[in-house]
Structure formats: structure tokens, C-alpha cells
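Reading a protein record of the kind used here takes only a little practice. The record below shows the convention in full:
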Amino acid sequence: MNRRLIITGIVATLGFVVVTGSLVFINVVKGEEYSKKAYSQQMKNQIISPKRGAILDTNGSVLAQSISVDTVSINPSSVKYTNNKTVEPEKLAQIFSEIFDITYEDALAKAQSKKTVEIIAKKVEKEKVTKLQDWIKENNISTGINIDEDTKRSYPNNNLASNLIGFCGDDNTGLAGLEEKWNDTLTGTSGKIVTAKANGGEAISDENEQYVAAENGSNIYLTIDINIQKIAEKYLAQAVTENQCEKGGTVIIMNPQSGDILAMASNPDYNLNQPRDSVATGLQSTWDTLSSEDKSNALYKLWRNKAVSDLYEPGSTFKLITSSIGLEEGKVSTDTNGDFNCNIVYYPAPDQPISCWRTYAAHGAQSLREALQNSCNPAFMQLGARIGARTSYKYYEAFELFSTRIGNTIASVSKPQFTELNKVGAVELATMSFGQRFSISPLQLITAVSAICNDGVLVEPRIVKKVENTDTNSAENLETKEIRQVISKDTADKVKDMMLSVVEKGTGKWAKVDGYTIGGKSGTSEPIESKKEEEGYTASFIAISPIENTQVVCLVVLYKPEGAAGHQGGQTAGPVASQIMSEVLPYLGIPTNDTKVETTTTNTSIAVQDVTNKTIAEAKKVLKESGFNVSVSSSGDENNTLVSEQIPKSGIYLEEGSTIYLYTSESSSKKTTKVPNIKGKTVAEATKILKDKNLNIKVDGDKGIIVSQDPTFDVEVEEGTVINVVIKEQLKDGQ
């Protein structure tokens, strides 16, 4: 059974395009004759839809892709047997209702329709189409049943990064997240087939057809690392459950030097392959009673990216910004004894008392470092008064806290909420100094703190690092964009040093990670009294590491925690940051405080020779003489059985003692294994780990620890596969 020849020709020419609106006849007996006839009748002035580009993580793992599916339709009056008799509508209705998600009654109505074309099913998987094709062949159906090639958006990781990636509608147009924001890049440009027609409407001839090729959509490579994303989502989900966070939470992990977002997680999440089947948390019991509008609103809240689109009061994490401004402006130093005084209650204005969080005992006289360690609100209200509203707002603007540009390449960005400068009084200035009574997005906060961690230089967050043209295989790298120098390196270093003190001696002690120096700051945002029950507290923690040459900034935000641990950011969000950093730092190859640097290259790399078409005995002799070990998958006579395949293939250079795997035509299927995570390991450690998995290693670098691996971990590969690693010598903190 063949599809119409014109469709075959178009597909062969385009490499995989979708021809929308076309009718593809399934022709069993007189394929070429029917194909030519169908072409002249139906393939005029057709739009050729481009293939939508894929979304991939930084290592090339697929996060979103278009897969081949089909649309099934019929020409009701033209469904005929090979003897030209009309096929009974009841017979059609029976098979359609059995194969596709359609009732017998609906199928019968379509089969008896007077319309020229009736759609039976869209986005049909190949196994269902195969059943239909077999039935057509068995029943000698010649014309009238049509199968269009189509595509469907597929998300192989289901819920992973769902709020970030977003999804497409039935027409493959992006409706949320990156699918929506990068829709034009992913979609491409439609092509067309234009046919001249005579005055009477009939086609003139096929020679007069004009063909304009579609431009397929581009692939986009994200800065997201799928493995770091999994770590973030795992611990965020645990925290939301353990702390009974009714409104969920969010995690952002960022490289402050490049602006690369390594992970962006929201909870609750949803299945990208079934976005409309998700039920928002807390609504399961009443879902069926909700109106369509209420359901849509609930789903929208579930789909949106909290890290970018939602605003929150950052609380005491914002004291890092206030400290930076005060130091930069010379209004404070880090360690002046008794620079601030806490008597529990502070009056920014007469009759306007604001209490410290520690109501049971005053902090007393403090330096800035001690005030940050203690997260003392009165101290920062005093500092805010020294700075003043106008100067504060100058720096807020420099940190891009008023902007809607930060994150606008990721999702729809909400406008930050600040009191107008001319309306800022003593009370407003006091509350802003410790992060309350204004609202920004989590991404804005981590971007501002990342500027502190990047020697005072603000870098635009980057989520897409490369755009790849799938037609030409050319690629455009989207470089890091520095926005401006906000504070001096000297100020930045002082703030980071104080962040270390917060974790070592202050409210951030729950964020410690064995073997690593961690800096950080907790935050607890208290809602105004009238909204306390509805909104609840927001607990957060921002962690950085290493202190010198900071490479990772992690922000954890938990909305409305009501578990046994309470609502304080240090106690609820701090442990989450610790859990995440304890896995992310070694994964990125960041050395522990006691990591020893190892010289690794031995200059014993040997070229693997081609031993295919040699006997097993000859192949083993050649490889062993070269210095390799050999593993043979064959039970045949070694002197008479030829090698049909080897892994690794010839031409690659490997260390002496590596294993070459040989296969014959009689060999059973190749064994596979999952690549282990060897980032942060020495070469000796990694070699042993890989050897136990029957994998080889190829090292790029002179000495140090492994900072990258290809393929990445958890990928299924054949035994003998070479794992390419890069090693670098990295300085410890303080060096």
C-alpha cells in the first residue's frame, strides 16, 4: 500500500515537512494512477508548514521536540473498494470507532456526511495509523480514506521544567513559557505550492506549478542543565511537601559570571504532554463544579513561571542590596563596633513602631556584619535612613529592580511594585531597607545578588545560549551581556565575606555544606495583617559558592509554609539550599576545600586501528600489540570468524590499557549501560568508575579534576563507548 506519489515526492524533497490541508489518498491497487488523479484534483495552492525546532538543554538533551503523527480524514462519497463499489458507512463507522477516540454515532455521521472532507482524527500515533492501513489493505479499499503527515509536540521528560518550557497548541503554536516567547524562532516560515488555473477554475498543467520551500524552525539550546534541573526539582518538591507550602515554591540556580540559568524550577508543576488535564493543587475536590472560566484561571496559575511572572516581597535577603548601597556610598563599614543599636522596637517616624523579629531579646550594639548575621531589622532601618530614598532608588534602578526586561526572554514579566519616589516617607524607606512593602520577581533578586557575586558587574540572565538553523546547520551563539558596573569589586568582596559570616555564625547556619564554603542570607517576608491568612509568610534563602570566584548562586523561595519547621527562611529554605548545593557543586566539578590536584596525562595515547573484516584472532593480536585490552562477543571460531564491528571505532586515540569491544555478524545484541556522573572526580577515580561500567575514557587537559563529561551522566550508551572528559586545575577559596 502506497501513499500518493506527490506526498512521497514532497517529503523526500523537504526532509520532513508537514503539508497542511492536503488530502493524501491511501491507494492499494492502482497507486500511481490514483496518485496522479488526486494530485490534479486536490494538491493546488497548498501551504507547506515548516517543522518546528526542538528545545534542548546545554548538553544537547531534548526537552521538547516535534514527532511525526498523522491526520486521518475521508471523502465520504469517494470511499470505494477496488471494484469501484462504495464502502458501507456502517462499516467505516465501526472501524473508526474501534481505532480512534470517537463514538460509533459520530463516526457514522461523518461517513454519511455530504461534505467533501470530514476529519476523523488528528495527531494520530503511528500504531493506530498502521491498524487502519492494514484494514484498508485487507478490505481492498482503493480511494477516499486520506492520511496526512503531521507533527505533534512531544516532551520526553513530562513534568521536568514544565513551567519554564511551556507547551504548544494543536496547531503547534507556542502558548506558554519558552514555547511562546521563542515561538517565531521555533516556528520557521511556511512554504507553498502555487498552481495556475484556467478561467474556468481547472488547473492548467503541472508544469505551471511554483514551489516555494518552507524554512524550518530553528533549534534552541538552553543554558539549563537537565541534571541540575532534576536536583532542583527533587528538593523543591520535598520542601513543599514537608513544609506544607500551600502555594508551592520556586528555585533558581544561576552562574553569576555568565548570567546562565542552570535550573529554574516551580512547584506545583504539570505534565507538558497533557497540560489541560492537570488540576491545580487544592482544587481537586471541587474541580468538576468549577466554571470554564474558573478552570482556565486555575490552569493559568499552574502553568505560569513563578520565578519570572510572580512578584513577592524578598524580605531579609534584600539586606544584601541595602548593605551594598551603604558600603558603596560610604555610609557604613563592615566591622565598626556599635555602629547600630537594636532595642527591639525602632521608630522610623513618631507613633510608627516597627519591631525586630527577635522580640524576646534585643540584639543591642552591632556592626554591619553582626547585623547581617542576626538579620536585625532595626539596624537596617537605621542604615536605610542614612542612605536616603533618592540614593536607594538610584541603585535599585542600576540593579534593574524597576525593569521589566529582566526575564522577558523567558516568560511574561510582571511590572515590579514600588512606592513612587515622591511618596516615599520614613516608614516606606524603613520597610524597604529590609525587603518589605515592595514586590519584585525571584529572578530580579537573584540577578541583583549575582551582580554582587560578579565583582559588582550586573549581567543579563541568559536562558538561550545558541540558536541552530536546522536547514543550514549553522548556529548563532548568544553571548553573555554585561549591563553595567553597579558597585565596586571592593564593595562586592566585603558583602560576600559577610555572607560567609551569615552561614558560619548567623541565621544561615542551616545552609552549610560539608567540604564547601557557602555564603548566604535568609529571608522571611511577613504579609500585612489584613492579608496574613490569605497570603501567609514567604520563606527564602539565597546561597553562593565559592566565596572567591563565585560560580553558583541558588535562590530558594517557599510560599506560605505552614509545617512544623515554621515560616522562617533560615530554618525552612536554608536546608533546601544546602541539599541542592551539596549535589550541584560536585556535579559542576567545583572542588571541595580538601581536594587534591592530580597530574593525569601520561602521554601514552594510542590510535585505535581498524580491525573490521579481520578474523577475531588477527584482530586480537593487532589490538593487544598496540597496548589495548580486547573483549569479544562471539562464540564462533576465532580463526575463521570475521569482526563486523568494533567499539570504539578506528581513528580515536585512547590511553594504553583501554578496552576495545569486538562484534561479529553472529554476535547477540550489544550490551548497554548508563553513564555514571564523574564530574568533580580525579582521572584515576573516574577511570576506575568507568572501567567497572565497561566504558573507556579520553582526557583533555594536563592536570586537575573533571569539570565536564560527554556523554553526560545517566545517558544509555553501548559498552566500550568513550567518555570524553575535560580536566582543569581550580584554585581554592583564598588562593
Residues 2-221 form a domain with the Penicillin-binding protein 2a (Domain 2) fold (CATH 3.90.1310.10). Residues 1-44, 596-603, 731-735 have pLDDT under 50 and may be disordered. The CA atoms of residues 248 and 268 lie 6 Å apart. Residues 569-587 form the longest helix (19 residues).
